[in-house]
Structure formats: C-alpha cells, structure tokens
Write a structure and sequence with these properties.
Strand order of the largest sheet: 1-2
Largest sheet: 2 strands, antiparallel
Number of domains: 1
Strand content: under 5%
Helix content: 55-70%
Oligomer: single chain
Structural class: mainly alpha
Length: about 475
C-alpha cells in the first residue's frame, strides 16, 4: 500500500509485467538470447525477460517487507544442499569431457537452478488476493490460446502437406524457437513436440479440467454449460493429438479419467452408491474404448508413434519391444544414475556432473540395439555428447544424494499440503484450485520419468500457482463466476 501511495504507477507496471510474463510462457527456446544467460542451451524461456523485471519491482520488495511462505523453506534448503554438492565436485579432480569442464557445468547448472527457483518465488509471491489469481489465469489462458492457435496452423501441414506451406510455417517458427519443425509432428512455440505436449498437459490442462469439473470460471462469459475453459480444453485436446507425444497422451487420458471419477454424483445417484459406481465404471470403459480407437486412428499417421503396436506386425523388427519403442536406453540412463548414487550416497556428485561419470558407470550391455547410447558414446565434431538421466528423481539421487533428494521431497510434501488445504476449503473456488493442484501433482509424477531439467519453467510455474492459491485462500474471499 505504501508503494502504491508513493508510486501510483507501480501496481500498473507490476500487472503489465505479470501479463507479459504469462503471455510469454509458451515460448521456451527463444532464439534471441545472450550467451551469458543461456544462449547456448536448448531451454531459453522468453519469460525470463519479464521475470527479471518482476524480481526487481515486485518480488524482492515483497520479500524485504515480509517473510517467504513456509512452503518455500524446504526449497531453499534444497538449493543450498545442491549448491554445496556442486561446489564439492571441484575437489574430486574430474577430467573434462569433450572440452566441457566441471566449472562450466557447475556454473550453468547453478544458474538454471537459481532461475527455476526465481520462477517459483515470483509465481508464488505475486498473487495477493483472489482478483490477482483470476487475473493470472486469464493471462495464462491468453498466452496458451495464442500457442494453441499456432499449433492449429501447424496441424495444417500434417493433414494437407504442402512443401511451400511447411516452409512458410517453419520460417515463422524461427522467430519463436531455435529448432525447426517436424514434418510429421507439431511443436507449437517450443523446441520439440514433446515439450509442447508437456506444456499443455502440465501447465494448462489441470486448470481447465478443474474449472470444467467444478463449474468455476475465471471469466464472466458463460453460455449454458460452455465456458472459456471448456472451449480451451477442447482446443488443447485437439492440438495435443498432433504432437504424437506418448507421454502427453497418457497424461491427458489420466486427467480425463480422474475428472470423471472426481465429478460429484447427481442427486439421483447419491442415495444409491452402487448405481453411481456402476455408472462410472461403464462411462470409464466406454471412454477407454473411444480413446484407444482415437489414438490408434490418429497415431497410425505417424511411424514413430505407431511403433507402440507395429512391433508385432513389422517383419524387419530386431531386438526387444522396449528397444523397438526406444525405452531401453532410458532404463540404461536410470540404472547408471542409480549406480552413481550408490557410490556417492549422501551429497551426490554435483549438479550436471552425471555426464562426467556416465561412461565409466554405464553397466555392461550390448550397445547396438540402442542407437541413442551409441550416438552419445561416439565422439564426432560438432556433436553434443552431454548426457542427462532423463528422470528427475534418479538425477536428484545421483547429483544431490540422499540429503538433497530428501529436501526436494520435503518441498513436494509442502505442495501436497497446499493442495489438501485447498481441497478441504469451504469455498468452491478454492476447492477448484485444489483439484487443479491434485491433477498437477499427478502429471508431475508422470513428467518426472522423462524430464530432468530445472530450467524448464513448467514445474515451477505450476507449483507456484498452487502455493499462491493456498496462501490467498487462507483469507476470506468472494466467489468467482460459479454455476
């Protein structure tokens, strides 16, 4: 309030920067990035620019005036332990790999960790009341509406391929991403299709499912059962199909099943729980049949996705099913990370140092069925041979040890506490946010089996919104547009 009295323009500036931050979230590999702040990496979130301004004009002043939320305490402890483990690696005499030193990896990994924490703190601290939360969701939806619209443009070259059209779309994509497009999959405004699918299912869909399920909308407009969230959910589901992301499909289906299971029973069903259970079982069974048919129909257009079932019909198949669908190399990464953890159990080997230990710790196994492993172990000029575990939890064990992993799990427990607080709130809008938080946690578990980066803002933004909502709804609020 004091700042608003002395600088009446400051609240407008903060809200403008916050809107820009939310609008820019879908752009995760922005080409125009200075080398010193990540310009040589794949993860280059455009939101980092408004984030830097928000830290100066909003977040740091608020931290100066009041203490951080309790949910952030274990995160701070994790950052401290991860930093200590990374600095300790300088005493181990690790040799460089393909010209990359321990010092350069340490600097890059610590910068990404601090940036991730900055994303979380900003999202957690900015919303001060329910109006801020509503404002946040509106602009979050606006940013993704643009990304989904661009995804629809890309769907055009999937359905009706034209070299001229594809080249034009790819040329425009160059303004959003450092990587070109795939002719058989869409990438939105991200680096690759799997990133786009993760964005949709992790950052956007939990809020849309919760809004549709709870009858709560961040907008005034409503036509019967239709809301902005319902329309966005339908559009997001359509676009997600053409990413051909196996993880994305599974997370979409899981959220859909949970939404049906958590949907409140009607007045007719409440006195007869057996009928309610039988109805839900029939609904889920029919939905499962429809989803399998839809995935098979759409997935058959993409050879990579069709591997899931073509193993048994392809006469030229070599190796096991897991090798054929490109999962066996992931298991090799995870096993290697566990062996590294077993040798350094307490504080691990330091952030980013998995790549230095990988070749020596890799279990003995034939490499020819796993082209990706051969690719990573074969030196070649201009080839990126840096390796990560591709699993957040095994990376935590290998690089931060038991102590760092325990603190990160404590942070997750704090987020779970926020979700439970919201779910058991007497306010419908708070319960809707709690349901979104529950879906976020479910998606996070799935995503953590394929993603291990601290730089990607998806996790930090999603968890930050949950803890922000719990803090806001600790005070009485007026309801939103509810049915």
């Amino acid at each position: 309030m004091t700042d608003a009295l002395h600088f009446p323009w400051l609240p407008r500036l903060e809200r403008g920067l916050w809107a820009l931050f939310l609008l820019s979230l879908p752009v995760t590999s922005f080409p125009y990035f200075p080398g010193g702040i990540g310009g040589r990496t794949e993860v280059r979130p455009l939101a980092l620019y408004p984030l830097a301004a928000l830290l100066l004009v909003s977040v740091l002043p608020r931290l100066w005036r009041s203490s951080a939320p309790r949910a952030t305490v274990p995160l701070i402890a994790f950052v401290f332990l991860a930093t200590a483990s990374t600095l300790l690696a300088f005493t181990r005499g690790i040799d460089p790999v393909i010209g990359v030193s321990v010092a350069s990896r340490a600097v890059r990994m610590l910068v990404t960790l601090f940036l991730g924490a900055a994303f979380y703190f900003t999202v957690t601290l900015f919303p001060q009341d329910e109006d801020d939360l509503r404002f946040t969701l509106r602009w979050l939806y606006a940013g993704f509406a643009v990304a989904l619209a661009w995804g629809c443009v890309q769907v055009g070259y999937i359905l009706f391929y034209s070299p001229e059209y594809f080249d034009l779309v790819e040329q425009v994509q160059g303004y959003f991403s450092v990587r070109g497009l795939f002719e058989t999959r869409i990438s939105g405004m991200t680096y690759e299709p799997s990133w786009f699918a993760e964005q949709i299912t992790f950052v956007l869909m939990p809020w849309l499912f919760a809004a549709v399920l709870s009858g709560v909308s961040a907008f005034r407009w409503r036509w019967r059962f239709l809301t902005v969230e319902a329309l966005l959910l339908a559009l997001a589901s359509f676009v997600l199909l053409y990413t051909y992301s196996r993880t994305g499909y599974v997370l979409w289906a899981v959220q859909l099943f949970l939404a049906l299971m958590l949907r409140p029973a009607s007045k007719v069903e409440r006195p007869r729980p057996w009928r309610w259970l039988s109805n839900r079982f029939v609904q889920l069974a029919l939905l499962g049949v429809v989803l399998v048919g839809l995935v098979f129909t759409v997935g058959s257009r993409n050879n990579y996705f069709a591997r899931l079932w073509s193993y048994w019909t392809d006469e030229d198949v070599v190796g096991t099913y897991l090798e054929f669908i490109a999962v066996s190399q992931r298991l090799a990464y995870w096993e290697t990370a566990y062996l590294i953890y077993a040798a350094h159990p307490w504080l691990g080997i330091g952030l980013g140092n998995y790549t230095f230990y990988f070749q020596d710790a890799l279990p003995d196994r034939p490499l020819f069925p796993n082209p990706e492993l051969l690719f990573k172990l074969t030196p070649e000029t201009g080839r990126n041979l840096l390796v990560t575990p591709k699993n957040l939890f095994v990376r935590l064990l290998a690089e931060t040890g038991l102590l760092g992993t325990a603190m990160f799990l404590a942070f997750l427990v704090a987020v779970v506490g926020c979700v439970l607080y919201l779910l058991y709130s007497p306010q419908q809008t708070a319960r809707a946010m709690g349901l979104a938080g529950l879906l976020i946690l479910v998606v996070f578990v799935g995503v953590s089996f394929s993603v291990d980066s601290f730089a990607n803002p998806n996790m930090w933004v999603s968890f930050g919104l949950v803890t922000a909502a719990a803090r806001v709804y600790a005070r009485p609020q007026e309801g939103w547009n509810e049915t």
